[in-house]
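Inverse folding, one chain.
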């Protein structure tokens, strides 16, 4: 019997390695285009995305208009079509075992559904049972609790049936009102002590390797 019949996974920097190799380098190019002469360090970029989320960072820190956000998103979608991030070592074993045991895999992410499906197809040969991505209206995206509420209603699950696995605190803001536990995906190697300390305090569980998460779920 599975410890958690449903895993709710973030995507970027939880399942696939995107921050250092894709997201941040592309963001630097976008800053050069939209705000010439303005720069942001990798650490500040990670921290602002952690605390605010990407879109709110653009609005609050760089005064992006809604039209600029639409253009930015279109540029990112074009870029990601030809750039597929690598998965973290060991994550495939977790996904495959969860499916072999007839468990559910749902994805709640700020990535677009099309990109998530592409990455799962390319790397794992499976598809998530449900995806809640950037294509949803803003009021239904993480950190809103809508994705988890919909998952519970769709699959007749209780809070204790679900484990959220994520690398940023928006997941905790989404899950805590529903009494759903969050596991910190601490294996991404981004190495920001402030984030690690906060996530260790906020989450029910913390794992610094995918192997430790595997053992926790299936041993």
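Residues assigned per position:
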């Amino acid at each position: 019997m599975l410890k958690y019949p449903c895993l709710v996974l973030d995507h970027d920097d939880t399942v696939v390695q995107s921050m250092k190799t894709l997201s941040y380098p592309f963001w630097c190019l976008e800053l050069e285009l939209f705000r010439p002469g303005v720069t942001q360090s990798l650490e500040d970029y990670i921290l602002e995305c952690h605390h605010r989320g990407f879109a709110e960072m653009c609005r609050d820190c760089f005064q992006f208009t809604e039209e600029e956000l639409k253009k930015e998103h279109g540029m990112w979608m074009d870029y990601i079509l030809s750039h597929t991030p690598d998965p973290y070592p060991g994550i495939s074993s977790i996904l495959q075992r969860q499916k072999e045991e007839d468990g559910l895999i749902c994805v709640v992410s700020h990535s677009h559904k099309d990109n998530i499906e592409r990455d799962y197809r390319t790397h794992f040969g499976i598809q998530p049972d449900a995806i809640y991505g950037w294509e949803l209206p803003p009021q239904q995206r993480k950190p809103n609790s809508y994705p988890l509420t919909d998952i519970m209603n769709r699959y007749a699950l209780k809070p204790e049936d679900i484990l959220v696995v994520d690398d940023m605190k928006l997941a905790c803001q989404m899950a805590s009102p529903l009494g759903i536990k969050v596991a910190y995906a601490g294996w991404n190697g981004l190495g920001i002590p402030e984030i690690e300390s906060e996530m260790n305090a906020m989450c029910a569980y913390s794992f610094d390797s995918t192997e430790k998460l595997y053992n926790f779920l299936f041993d």
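The chain has a mean pLDDT of 95. The two ends are 11 Å apart (CA to CA).
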